[in-house]
Amino acid sequence: xxxxxxxxxxxxxxxxxxxxxxxxxxxxxxxxxxxxxxxxxxxxxxxxxxxxxxxxxxxxxxxxxxxxxxxxxxxxxxxxxxxxxxxxxxxxxxxxxxxxxxxxxxxxxxxxxxxxxxxxxxxxxxxxxxxxxxxxxxxxxxxxxxxxxxxxxxxxxxxxxxxxxxxxxxxxxxxxxxxxxxxxxxxxxxxxxxxxxxxxxxxxxxxxxxxxxxxxxxxxxxxxxxxxxxxxxxxxxxx
Length: 239
Hints:
Layout lengths: L6 E6 L15 H9 L1 E2 L4 E5 L6 H11 L26 E5 L6 E6 L3 H9 L14 H12 L4 E6 L7 H16 L3 E6 L11 E6 L2 E5 L5 H11 L1 H8 L2
Helix pairs in contact: 4-5, 6-7
């Protein structure tokens, strides 16, 4: 795997003015980045945490800071439904490795319908078949078309439309991407994706952001416990 990663870190722009009382600025993971920035490793990095931990807020901000559409696509993609993103992306500075042209793309599971429609209505459309596929099939097809070669790629909860076997297909594609020098950051709840050997796992929570291993990941612990004894969970839950 190559280590000359396209993006070295992201940090608060020195000229930015931050409303520290805003809801998004008070998320511990976001507060940690505003305070100290975040180094982004080569290869694949997973952002993992409970709902509300800041995973999507962070990956959307990384996309915006990289010049990508916050609802998915490449640089210059012009589509939006309803703006729900925080202003964090406009406050961050991306520290890049100089000297090479970098491909970039963002896929966000919840806004794929709008992205498909935008792509098929371009003046010279090449991706006109995505609405004709299932949600998962279209997602994987677009990913394999757009996430290619040396670049900085982002995904928000890509497992949402995928079956177990399709998630394995995505995992295999991630391995090919990093072998080709790609840098990928993914917000996820998937214990399958996070099992990718050699990936970096960042756990977001009340502590902020910390690097952890697969076996120490709270997500994995809970899934293992549930699958080994689902009745133990359901007995109290459904009483």
